Amino acid sequence: MKHMNWHTATSEKAVRVIDSSSEGLDSQEAQSRLERHGYNKLSSQDTSSPWRLLLE
Predict the structure, then answer these.
(1) Cα 26–42–48 angle (5° rounding)?
(2) pLDDT tens profile 13-55
(3) What is the DSSP letter of 18?
(4) What does the DSSP 8-state code read for residue 7?
(5) Phi, psi of 52 (to 5 degrees)
(6) Residue whose C-alpha is closest to residue 37's, from 49, 29, 26, 45
(7) Global pTM?
(8) What distance lies between CA 51 and its chain's CA centroid?
(9) Residues 6+ apart with CB under 8 A from 47
């Protein structure tokens, strides 16, 4: 997908770019995308701050 400034896009354009609709995806398409792309999950990162490391 080409780089897009999502914060300036209209909702209609954003929905069109991700090939969806204002009603969302039907169950079959949602399952297909889940299998293709995986869960919408952020990877965990070490949350230790430099200060915490210094105090430990």
Answers:
(1) 165
(2) 999 999 999 999 999 999 999 999 999 888 877 777 878 778 8
(3) T
(4) G
(5) -65, -40
(6) 29
(7) 0.57
(8) 31
(9) none
